[in-house]
Design brief:
The protein has helices spanning about 50-60, 80-90, 110-115, 125-135, 155-165, 185-200, 210-215, 235-240, 245-250, and strands at about 10-20, 25-35, 40-45, 65-70, 75, 90-95, 170-175, 205, 220-225, 230-235. With about 270 residues, the protein is of the alpha/beta class. It has a domain at about 100-170. Helix 3 (about 110-115) runs parallel beside helix 5 (about 155-165) and helix 5 (about 155-165) packs parallel to helix 6 (about 185-200).
Length: about 270
């Protein structure tokens, strides 16, 4: 990114406190980083490090107690009403759990139609776009007439990806999108996600505790520990030559993980 370009996403001094009174817990401590358009930043750390809190704060599930979140230079916290809702649609979250993220009472077509047009979720009106989205994630268009319970975990995650892409967002937040899946299915979803990332030139915040995955999909890596950034830099540098003891321990704990290759496998 050149000096005059505005980052797609910029966090500045972000603090988040969850709970109230004696139960209040400061989860994030002045987090600052940016993601240039078209780049992928991996956010890594152990459970409880604050990764998912950052993701949920960006999309408005949690409220910052201090700091700013800027999207294309616009302070999200200063927006209200329709302006805020409009900007939020440009940022889409792919959640961790493919089982609870879809309404079991709605067909896949209804779910995608609602993503396309929340006020008038007509499957008939959006049939062509729904079929296109399903093909994009390698599902048959007949999936539109079926319910979430008829699909495997990997297929549901494909549907969650299709839903996130429905409005052609400018930022995707992928929050541990493979952690609930078995190894072979994880590899399939990551291959799909990487293909879409390149073809659609997505800007991505990729949240994961798995460094083997992050290394293959990320341009930059940010390492979190107890709500603080302890190391950041290019994925190659941070994960090949970590400078901080905590990052060194994380990298040393990564197994060979052959199941996470993003290269198409023979017969796949």
């Amino acid at each position: 990114m050149t000096a005059h370009e505005t980052p797609r996403l910029q966090l500045s001094g972000l603090e988040v406190v969850l709970g109230r009174g004696v139960r209040a817990n400061r989860v994030l401590h002045g987090i600052s980083f940016e993601i240039p358009a078209g780049r992928t930043v991996g956010l890594v750390g152990e459970s409880g490090s604050g990764k998912s809190t950052i993701a949920k704060t960006i999309v408005g599930i949690h409220a910052p107690s201090a700091g700013r979140i800027l999207f294309d230079g616009v302070d999200i916290g200063r927006l209200r009403g329709r302006e805020r809702a409009r900007l939020r649609r440009r940022i889409q979250l792919i959640p961790q759990d493919p089982y609870s993220s879809l309404d079991p009472r709605r067909t896949i077509g209804q779910t995608l139609a609602e993503a396309l047009d929340p006020r008038g979720a007509s499957v008939r009106a959006h049939r062509a776009r729904i079929s296109e989205l399903l093909r994009l994630v390698a599902l048959d268009e007949s999936a539109a007439d079926r319910f979430p319970g008829e699909f495997s975990g990997g297929q549901r995650q494909r549907i969650a990806i299709a839903r996130a892409l429905a409005v052609e967002p400018e930022l995707i937040i992928a929050d541990e999108i493979t952690s609930a899946l078995d190894l072979s299915t994880q590899a399939e979803i990551l291959q799909l996600f990487e293909r879409l990332r390149r073809e659609l030139r997505l800007t991505v915040l990729f949240v994961s505790h798995n460094l083997a995955v992050v290394r293959q999909v990320s341009d930059e890596v940010i390492v979190l520990l107890h709500g603080d950034i302890v190391e950041a830099g290019s994925a190659e540098r941070v994960l090949s030559e970590p400078q901080q003891p905590y990052t060194q321990r994380l990298v040393a704990s990564v197994p060979g993980a052959p199941g996470f290759s993003l290269e198409p496998q023979p017969g796949a």
